């Protein structure tokens, strides 16, 4: 064999290999590379979109937290107002109860004073009858002189 023929055969085989690779293998690898590039680009875009969504979610979380703090302040203010209102109501109820108790005590005192006066009148009337009996030296009948004793009680 001649070196020239071997070299030409090898060059022809190499050219055939290049043509076959360019025709069938190269497009397959290019499709796979393009798919991989597209997948990477999509992943990067999704990562960027996720970062933007994370920033937006962080902003929304801060806004919601600010709203929650504001709402807590409103609730605390409302509770303080309700507390003051309840204290005022309790004070008013206690004052009304104290006035009611005081009025009942005054009425009870007035009844006791009237009862004591009545007892004193009866005792004075009994003393007056006893005194009159001693003065007259005879017995005065309280049943027969009831009208007289009644007038005496009213006068005293």
Give an overview of the whole structure.
The protein has 156 residues and is mainly α. It has one domain (3-155). The chain is built from two helices and no strands. The protein has helices spanning 3-136, 146-155. Helix 1 (3-136) packs across helix 2 (146-155). It is rod-shaped, with a radius of gyration of 60 Å.
Number of strands: 0
The number of distinct helices, counting runs of at least 4 residues, comes to 2
- Basic shape: rod-shaped
Query: What is the share of helical residues?
Result: over 70%
- The figure for the number of domains is 1
Q: Can you give the mean pLDDT?
A: 87
The whole-angstrom Rg is 60 Å
H-E string? HH
- β content, as a range? under 5%
